Amino acid sequence: MSRLLLAVTLERVCKAVLLLCLVHFVIIMILYFDVYAQRLDFFTRFSVRNASRLHPYYNFTRPNGTAHSYTAETLPGSARPDPNQTATEKPLPPCPDSPPGLVGRLLIEFSSLMSLERVQRENPEVTEGGRYSPRDCQARERVAIVIPFRHREHHLKYWLHYMHPILRRQKVEYGVYIINQHGEETFNRAKLLNVGFLEALKDAEYDCFIFSDVDLIPMDDRNLYHCYEQPRHFAIAMDKFGFRLPYAGYFGGVSGLTKAQFLKINGFPNEYWGWGGEDDDIYNRITLNGMKVSRPDIRIGRYRMIKHERDKHNEPNPQRFTKIQNTKVTMKKDGIHTLHYQVVHFSKFPMYTNITVDIGKPPPRPARG
Description:
There is one protein chain. By secondary structure, the protein is an alpha/beta fold. The protein contains eight helices and 13 strands. Strands 3, 4, 5, 6, 8, 10, 12 and 13 form an eight-stranded mixed beta sheet that branches. It has a three-stranded mixed beta sheet with strand order 7-11-9. A hairpin with a 4-residue loop joins strand 12 and strand 13. It starts with a helix and ends in an 11-residue tail after the last strand.
């Protein structure tokens, strides 16, 4: 009797254990399929949501209801996309204030042979007209570099050789404009710079203008070629001046102004024919309009000048000292708003844009009585 009771009891225990195992198995399977279903639903909703998400530069609708594929150029106040960027890529991040690729002090020499073919070969990223835009970041502004020019082909080769790599390391979006004075009349640097300002704006929407002599090369790439809150004087320590600022009001060589700063001073004077005086007039215009000149550290703002003889038809201007004293009166009636010139030839070369212009000739000097 006891054996029979024990057998019955064991049979019941085994059935109970099997039932518990079956219940456990069913519960596990229910939980498994529930989790799987939740995951499937999540990924399905995620895919649908991403498939319907619009790219910020795509498929905006105009007020009249017409669909239009905007670029950053046509969106007011938005950043310009990289030309190599496709519609599905994210906007480029802003370029850093201190680009990581800068090397600091540079060795500048003018003894080796230079050719435009070599410059072009060394700068494949620069496009026609001397244009460049960083591919990995969005530059803070567009910079037009304007160079007054005549009979300086030898110097231009060195300038392009050194400056294109420097500007690319600085992450500058820029274009190079050579403003070539036509004919053999007396040279007029400031008037050529005024021409460069207007002609560059016809070519692209520039925010910043850097005016540079073709024979000056920076010796430190930390001297960043962009515009500042105040007009900028870059070339503050040239080798010909013993790497010192010659005087407090000096504004020659290389300088930069925003479009607003340039227009505020009515541009540069047009009536300085021959060498000298126009830089001091520009400095006076800046200070008379309530602005101050900003400068880099003197250890960074060092420049080397390519040695050369004084250009023919660029003799010292004998009237420059009198004109400088009258800047307050003349700057309102002599400047960008009274500029007259004629474009003789416009050409885009691989490393720069050349604009040859006829700017007239100086007025006849009054006869001495």
